[in-house]
Amino acid sequence: MRLSRTYVPTLKEVPAEAEVVSHRLLLRAGFIRKLTAGIYTYLPLGLKALNKVADICREEMNRAGAQEILMPMVQPGDLWRETGRWEFYGKELQRFRDRHDRDYCLGPTHEEVVTDLVRGEVRSYRQLPLNLYQIQTKFRDEIRPRFGLMRGREFVMKDAYSFDRDEAGADASYRAMYDAYRAIFRRLGLEFRPVEADSGSIGGNFSHEFMVLADTGEDTIAVCQGCEYAANMEKAEVVAPVDKCDCGHDCGPVVEIPTPGMHTVEEVCAFLEIEPDTLIKTLLFDVDGAPVAGLVRGDRELNEIKLKNHLGAQDVKLATPEQVVAWTGAPVGFAGPVGLKAEGLRIVADRELDFDCGWVVGANKADAHLKSVDLGRDAKIDAYTDLRNITEGDRCPRCGGAIGFRRGIEVGHVFKLGLKYSQAMNAVFLDENGREQVMVMGCYGIGVSRIVASAIEQNHDAEGIKFPPSIAPFEVALLSLGGKDAEVIEAADRLYAELTRQGIEVLYDDRDERPGVKFKDADLMGMPMQLVLGGKGLKSGIIEAKDRRSGEKRELKLADFAKDFADWRRSVRQGWGLGID
Ligand code: 9G3
Known about the structure:
Elements: H1 21-28, E1 32-36, E2 39-42, H2 44-63, E3 67-68, E4 74-76, H3 77-82, H4 85-88, E5 95-97, E6 103-106, H5 111-121, E7 130-139, E8 154-164, H6 167-187, E9 192-197, E10 206-213, E11 219-224, E12 230-232, E13 255-258, H7 265-272, E14 280-287, E15 290-297, H8 304-311, E16 316-318, H9 321-328, E17 346-350, E18 359-362, E19 368-373, H10 375-378, E20 383-385, E21 403-418, H11 420-424, E22 428-430, E23 436-438, E24 440-447, H12 448-458, E25 460-461, E26 464-465, E27 476-480, H13 486-501, E28 506-509, H14 515-525, E29 529-533, H15 535-539, E30 542-547, E31 553-557, H16 561-575
Helix pairs in contact: 1-12, 2-6, 2-12
Residues 85, 89, 92-93, 108-109, 140, 159, 202, 413, 415, 443-445 line the site of ligand 9G3.
């Protein structure tokens, strides 16, 4: 494509609201334009990048045996009432009425629609397994859309839904999608990690998120330095500690000690001159309306998702100060496991607390704590479990290796759904014995538009974007620096035609612009390969080549261009971990 004939409105400055680099560069490089909060127009280059991501998803989904469909954006409310999600979701679900006052919503996802489709069509086990997917625009009325395409309200998703006759089949469908996702992210040339994740309210108890590793990522993931294990913080398992109590659990009688006005762990530890790892933090929660006390060591973070999953609860929220007083008899900061007797209150403790004693705990009395507490002796603990966030010093639950932390951007998520939607919507089939069975489902999503932004978060420098060849709108940026020098223009035109004939996507900067402007725009837009033809080069029969990722430059002989270019292209793609397609 000739740049002189392409609509690429680059910008020097961008609005302050563009906080993250991908947002700033997509605006500056003329890839997107904001229409309103969280809603963007894709300009020619932006759409080409988006379509390249979508195409790779499509090819790998088809290769994995999934079939592409396209479901409507507008969905009838009644379907969502069948699954209880019409009431469950708040303002994030954009509802509206049609002229006949019927309820509808803008589709944030399509579990209900696809299950309605399949329950109407599939009758027999012979029609299963089935995996249907689409690449389509979603709408979620996020409370604070920000970071451009990273967290928009209107975005493009590849969402797939599998239907199987039984658990084993659903496992196979899940595995096939998991492998297809690894192939997709490998072909995109992005550094990514599949991480074990929590399924939350989506249903099912098993899922993996696919994270593009980037320091600007919103999520923290625990990564084993020794093996493939990786999990997001919500899910990362903490290995059970070995017994280290050296007093044989005889830490002397419990003693009450005054701690006037010392509410926080830091304040109590400073006042008593003790380390936080000798104190037990007691947090009160309202779990589906019932009181629960969660205990972790003073220097640990309690993981509410682990508490929710351990209790099999729907809703877990921190107790209000009023509830704390009602349930413990003391203000926030003085709660403790000894003598807690509120009606129906359960105490769940992190299992490392069972392996030690001599703890300092809140006395359930204002301005007082207890010391020399042994939970086994002094409190009624309903359960010990893995209740805390994994930390730097913890070992890998798989291989015992060292655990490290990385930031990541969630760009894919695969879920084993089970029966949640098929049961609620009566999606059944007849098995070989003529008996009616409920289909076992899975669902799988990739944030197609978010991937374009996350590729930039992972690959950019002060000059601009560094697109991997798999996502770049064009693989080559060809810059003719001859100004009005007809010879250079002719030579550049010939190269452009030659490369295009070879099927290489070329953005040919044929504008009558100063070299400096062309270099800056080429670096800004981030095409992986730059070819620069100037008068001097043409005279000496060479064209300059620059690998945008590494910055490495080389001279290609015009006389031997096809071979030189092919060799160079191979090395540039290798730099991205990509072969020659
Ligand atoms: C809603 C709203 C927001 C939502 C959902 C429903 C997220 C919702 C989770 C999923 C699960 C998978 C298929 C593709 C992959 C992800 N945000 N989710 O269900 F009504 Cl407003 O979408 N769906």
